[in-house]
Amino acid sequence: MTGPRRRDAGSGLALRAWCLDQGAYWLLYVVSVAAAVVHWRAGNEALAVLCALAVVLAVRSIMSAHRSGQGRAGPTG
To answer: Any idea which UniProt keywords this protein has (predicted)?
Structure first.
């Protein structure tokens, strides 16, 4: 037997999806920055440039999401 269902269970799911989406963008950004620095210091300039391009793409994705209103409204908007 299951307990009573919460009325806001759907919004909890939306919140989790929103957090995972935002976390994925920021993780890509942070990991790509670290990878670019590590590759640059190791002498792998080509891979450093590739990682830096991933940083630029991640930042542009984050900024475009915020400009289009996805980032401002949050999980319930």
So the answer is: Membrane, Transmembrane, Transmembrane helix
Residues in the chain: 77
d(CA 60, CA 43): 27
Residue 45 has which token pair?
A: 């300039």
CA pseudo-torsion sign 49, 50, 51, 57:
positive
Tokens 């915020």, located at residue: 66
**Is-contact 29 55, C-beta < 8 A?**
yes
For helices 45-67 and 9-42, the axis angle rounded to 10 degrees is: 150
* pTM, 2 dp: 0.57
Structure tokens at 35: 């990878």
Structure tokens at 62: 């984050």
pLDDT at site 1: 47
